[in-house]
């Protein structure tokens, strides 16, 4: 469970990232965050693993405060959170399996991981993770030889090898074509269902949000202006979130 308790974030230059957010995300939900550029989606997502510090309020994961966690507590909290980025964040010159194994670094000493000494169980876990996203056969290929969609699957496998309880995905499909976009969204949805991993995804395509989310949260100027099911997220609701009618380029389109 992820709880936001009166969370606000004001950047040093005075920009408002988040305003008084109160939210509870239950285990196993697939939450999609939507909103215009600058609405606060990335700020919200990145505050969950404290990539961004908040200005006031508290964020708790399973009752443990992320906001107040010290160095070693924060490392343990972060070990349970997998992060997926628009740009994949892979080590391009390393193989796929080396990238997936990097999800295990939080479980071992720095020296051991620097030398690449991972136990056999970690290798098995990584291969199983690759199997789950259907690219097991690419394990020994260099990451930069894969397509964008395959690279994003490697980053999902890395989060699985990490045995993350929570996956945070910041615009995970923004660099992908429509077909690959759906494949990656299907992977995220399947993993969410099969492994009951709480998943929070920032997206700007509203039809994808409706199709894959179990819950949609709309942000506008740092505030929650919508919180409901995909069925409740009508065109009118989106117009309210965006402060204007939905535009054509905010739909991925039907394939
Ligand atoms: N590092 C920063 N320094 C100052 N202001 C920032 C910083 N990062 C974000 N902001 C401001 O905080 C607000 C929310 O930004 P955020 O990036 O969270 O929005 P977003 O909804 O993720 O937008 P996008 O879809 O463009 O990524 C914006 O007004 C933005 O200008």
From TrEMBL:
GO terms for molecular function: ABC-type phosphonate transporter activity; ATP binding; ATP hydrolysis activity. SMART domains: AAA. Keywords: ATP-binding, Cell membrane, Membrane, Nucleotide-binding, Phosphonate transport, Translocase, Transport. Residues 2-246 form the ABC transporter domain. PROSITE patterns: ABC_TRANSPORTER_1, ABC_TRANSPORTER_2. InterPro entries: AAA+_ATPase, ABC_transporter-like_ATP-bd, ABC_transporter-like_CS, ABC_transpr_PhnC, MetN_ABC_transporter-like, P-loop_NTPase. The keyword Cell membrane applies. Gene3D superfamilies: P-loop containing nucleotide triphosphate hydrolases (3.40.50.300). Signal peptide: none annotated. GO terms for cellular component: membrane. The keyword Transmembrane does not apply. This is Phosphonate ABC transporter ATP-binding protein. It comes from Paenibacillus pini JCM 16418.
């Amino acid at each position: 469970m992820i709880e936001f308790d009166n969370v606000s974030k004001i950047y040093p230059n005075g920009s408002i990232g988040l305003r008084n957010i109160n939210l509870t995300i239950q285990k196993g939900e697939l939450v999609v965050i939507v909103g215009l550029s600058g609405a606060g989606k990335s700020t919200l997502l990145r505050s969950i693993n404290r990539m961004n510090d908040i200005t006031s309020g508290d964020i708790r994961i399973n009752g443990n405060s992320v906001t107040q966690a010290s160095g070693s507590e924060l490392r343990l909290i972060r070990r349970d959170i997998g992060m997926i980025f628009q740009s994949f964040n892979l080590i391009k010159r390393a193989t796929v399996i080396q990238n997936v194994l990097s999800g295990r670094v939080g479980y071992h000493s720095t020296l051991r991981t620097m030398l690449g000494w991972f136990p056999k169980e970690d290798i098995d876990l990584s291969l199983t993770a690759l199997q789950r996203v259907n690219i097991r056969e690419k394990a020994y290929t260099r990451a930069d030889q894969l397509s964008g969609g395959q690279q994003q699957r490697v980053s999902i496998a890395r989060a699985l090898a990490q045995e993350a309880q929570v996956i945070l995905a910041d615009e995970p499909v923004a660099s992908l074509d429509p077909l690959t976009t759906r494949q990656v969204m299907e992977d995220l949805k399947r993993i969410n269902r099969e492994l009951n991993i709480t998943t929070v995804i920032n997206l700007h395509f509203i039809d994808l949000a409706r199709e894959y989310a179990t819950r949609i949260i709309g942000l506008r100027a740092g505030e929650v202006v919508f919180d409901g099911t995909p069925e409740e997220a009508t065109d009118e609701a989106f117009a309210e979130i965006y402060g204007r009618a939905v535009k054509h380029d905010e739909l991925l389109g039907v394939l």
